[in-house]
Write a structure and sequence with these properties.
Layout: H1 2-17, E1 32-44, H2 48-55, E2 62-65, E3 68-78, E4 83-99, E5 105-123, E6 127-145, E7 156-171, E8 174-186, E9 189-201
Antiparallel strand pairs: 1-3, 1-9, 2-4, 3-4, 4-5, 5-6, 6-7, 7-8, 8-9
């Protein structure tokens, strides 16, 4: 969370520090298509017992390493300065489960794609906060074992809510964004993603 707050402050500061002559009036591009790419990190919001239930391991004697890189791409359309829609794909990295036995480990690789509705609050000419909510088609692919090679661990997929908040600076055609997202895959498996993105407004 501290990294996300730092990224948000940086985005806000960039909107204040860039010379006004560099930026065009955002009303010129308050409607229309945009796209972007971003990266950051993910964090699992569940404990070992819950993850064990999610993959069907039948055990919880292992360590969790859940801080991994996130990559995401998005394409959106602004109907006006306050409302937009966005499609996305997110590679949410791996959650690593490390058992006490040598070689006993499992990786859960997660990804998601979907669509969200954005509500935006412009602040001044070049800065905005936003909140979003939508649905994500997700997949959690389990590889490895936790010391019991006879046990087939369970892959999971589904369609569930995704929601988030963020801040964005608009520099003529360019955008700079910092955001937090919660991927609510399952009561036993929820991933938070903190990302910073660069984009282009058409």
């Amino acid at each position: 969370m501290k990294k996300f707050l730092l990224a948000t402050v940086t985005v806000a500061a960039s909107g204040l520090l860039v010379p006004q002559g560099v930026m065009a009036d955002p009303s010129d591009r308050s409607e229309g298509l945009y796209m972007g790419l971003g990266t950051g990190f993910s964090s699992l919001q569940n404990d070992r017992d819950e993850v064990a239930d999610f993959i069907g391991s039948g055990a919880s004697d292992y360590r969790l390493d859940d801080d991994d890189n996130v990559w995401r791409g998005f394409v959106g359309y602004n109907f006006n300065p306050y409302v937009g829609v966005e499609g996305f794909y997110s590679d949410l990295g791996k959650v690593k489960l490390r058992g006490d036995e040598q070689g006993a480990h499992t990786d859960i690789k997660s990804s998601a794609y979907g669509a969200s509705v954005l509500g935006k609050l412009p602040i001044g000419q070049h800065f905005e906060f936003f909140a979003k909510a939508g649905l994500a088609k997700w997949d959690a692919d389990v590889r490895g074992n936790l010391g019991d090679e006879s046990l087939t661990l369970r892959n999971n997929d589904g369609v569930d809510p995704v929601y988030g908040v963020g801040a964005q600076v608009n520099l003529d055609r360019f955008l700079i964004r910092a955001e937090f997202e919660r991927y609510d895959f399952d009561s036993d498996y929820k991933i938070d993603a903190f990302t910073a993105s660069l984009g282009w407004r058409f």
